[in-house]
DNA sequence: TCAATTTTTTAGATTAGACTAAATATTTTA
DNA sequence: TAAAATATTTAGTCTAATCTAAAAAATTGA
């Protein structure tokens, strides 16, 4: 059907559309894909010819319905595999991304459907991101960043914005995990660092941390 | 590490070495890979440059130790994934090959190791072929073809030579499965067809069938 | 508003892997 | 043992996906 590269571009456009509502720019896409703008222009043309994106020169791209469905299907597979790796194969949540980047391109409807069933139709991946169902539907919960909480407020960790291994291992090291309750004890005006309580233990975290942890109140 | 194409060629050389002991010819490889001899020559050069095969012009190829280890690793993954699909995801044995052809190229040592463990270190894939262990070791049992049995002899089905969906579905339809006992009731001289007994039922099979079913006595 | 800066596209190359057609080497057979 | 047949390699082309450098369009801001 589509090449790995085409699928990766579609996924990138999908993720960037949240931020760039009026159309995703060539440069934004080049940065996301870690490639050159000229390469992006080439690929955009190709995706446009295949009716996967809507493109007018110098105006950026948007996903077509077909492009969006394809992107969501790839994301569904990525997250299902991440769930599989953590739940069944003893992977830690900081180890799954690169493998899922490969597995998301395996083409087999039956495989995806049966994997989903085998895993019990999970709703969220190990990083708290929603897993689209077979029809491409997924919940967008109204979570907020820990950094947006005020002193005295309490919430539950439900996801991470940054999914880098470094950040995830920091969280592991400090016993911060999805599902746990955090309370904002104090906020330092100077650097916006926070004193939080988690598992009854006090912990001081920088804004680099609180700005990458999703909370539900 | 290596491209999908390189891995597929190595696998093909590995399988063909059984038949062509003195070196696998360009044409044999071209047929196995369903490609042209000229493409094979190109790839052989590349594999030779990478020290994966031993090659002298016009003399065919053999795997180097490094090439053999790589081929075995790919075959290990292929068969582990086939086992996974049948045992955990409700695939039938005639549906697994194409998906395994994709999955065998996923690069992650941890994934292979943990999948193996998760599956309970299986020794054989759904078609009766041995699954190499993490060190690349696997048993080569001395099975023979059903067509080699004489009238009156009995054996257990342990594998299939042809793994095409058509053949496997024929076996399913006729209740022939690995592990079952077959008895050769009669052999027709004219066309070598056999009258066999399986599950207490008589069945007449052509040589196309008996020549593709492995038996252990 | 128009020159400078930034963004995007175009032009031209490169690499992997495949193909066709032609050349050359090897093997078979008369 | 020399044609004939077959197998293999070489030469040249093609496509997908990438790159660099240059050109062109859009945006910014003095
Ligand atoms: Mn991921
Ligand atoms: Mn994830
Ligand atoms: Mn197979
Ligand atoms: Mn198999």
From TrEMBL, chains A, B:
Record bears the keyword Chaperone: no
Gene Ontology CC: cytoplasm
Molecular functions per Gene Ontology: DNA binding; DNA-binding transcription factor activity; protein dimerization activity; transition metal ion binding
HTH dtxR-type domain ranges (all copies): 1-64
Pfam families noted in UniProt: Fe_dep_repr_C (PF02742), Fe_dep_repress (PF01325), FeoA (PF04023)
Domain of life from the UniProt record: Bacteria
Keywords associated with the record: Activator, Cytoplasm, DNA-binding, Manganese, Repressor, Transcription, Transcription regulation
Subcellular location, record wording: Cytoplasm
The keyword Oxidoreductase belongs to this UniProt entry's keyword annotation: no
Described function: In the presence of manganese, represses expression of mntH and mntS. Up-regulates expression of mntP.
Quaternary state and interactors: Homodimer.
Protein family per UniProt: Belongs to the DtxR/MntR family.
Alphabetical list of PANTHER family matching this protein: IRON (METAL) DEPENDENT REPRESSOR, DTXR FAMILY, TRANSCRIPTIONAL REGULATOR MNTR
Protein name, entry field: Transcriptional regulator MntR
């Amino acid at each position: 059907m589509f090449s790995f590269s085409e699928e990766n571009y579609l996924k990138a456009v999908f993720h960037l559309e949240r931020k760039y509502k009026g159309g995703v720019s060539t440069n934004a896409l080049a940065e996301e894909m870690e490639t050159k703008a000229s390469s992006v222009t080439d690929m955009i043309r190709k995706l446009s010819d295949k009716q996967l994106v809507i493109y007018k020169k110098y105006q950026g791209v948007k996903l077509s319905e077909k492009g969006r469905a394809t992107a969501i299907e790839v994301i569904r597979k990525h997250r299902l595999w991440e769930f599989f790796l953590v739940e069944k194969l003893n992977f830690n949540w900081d180890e799954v991304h690169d493998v899922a980047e490969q597995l998301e391109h395996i083409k087999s409807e039956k495989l995806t459907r049966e994997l989903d069933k085998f895993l019990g139709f999970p709703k969220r991946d190990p990083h708290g991101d929603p897993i689209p169902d077979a029809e491409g539907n997924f919940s967008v919960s109204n979570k907020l960043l820990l950094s947006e909480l005020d002193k005295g407020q309490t919430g539950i960790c439900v996801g991470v914005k940054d999914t880098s291994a470094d950040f995830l291992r920091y969280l592991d090291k400090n016993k911060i995990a999805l599902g746990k309750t955090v309370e904002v004890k104090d906020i330092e005006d100077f650097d916006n660092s926070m004193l939080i309580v988690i598992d009854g233990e006090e912990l001081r975290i920088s804004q680099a941390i609180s700005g990458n942890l999703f909370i539900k109140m």
